[in-house]
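User: structure tokens for DsrE/DsrF-like family protein, please.
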Amino acid sequence: MKNISIITILLILFGIGSPQAQTVNPEKNNYLVLSKNIQQLKPVMLTAVELAKQDGNNYGEFYLIFCGKTVQGILKDGEFLRLAKQAKEKNLKIFVCGLSLKKFGIDPKDISEIIEVTENGILDGFQLTKKGFITLTI
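Assistant: Done. Predicted tokens:
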């Protein structure tokens, strides 16, 4: 719990990489989830769908960034890739941290085109938070 608080504070103090380059509407409700567990994709996707219903015209962007050791499972987990395709169809944008890929020896070219690679997922989290994204770290 202490680590989540520290990461959240760090995210608030800093900014983001690839997702930051994307245009977002600051007058909409924009969401970001930073996760270290690919098993969280399904519940995050269900949450995004429900928030889109609840927010209606106020719903903006929903980004999910995976960082850490969990990136090793992205290449091997067929269920994850199936869910990632469904998530993309529901306008949930999935990113994987390039620093994490590098740390675990994964070539970004091996990542499915469904998932975008961002250079630094933590930096991206900070930058999106500064842009007003509602942020959760799980």
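User: Anything notable?

Assistant: DSSP finds five helices and five strands in the chain.
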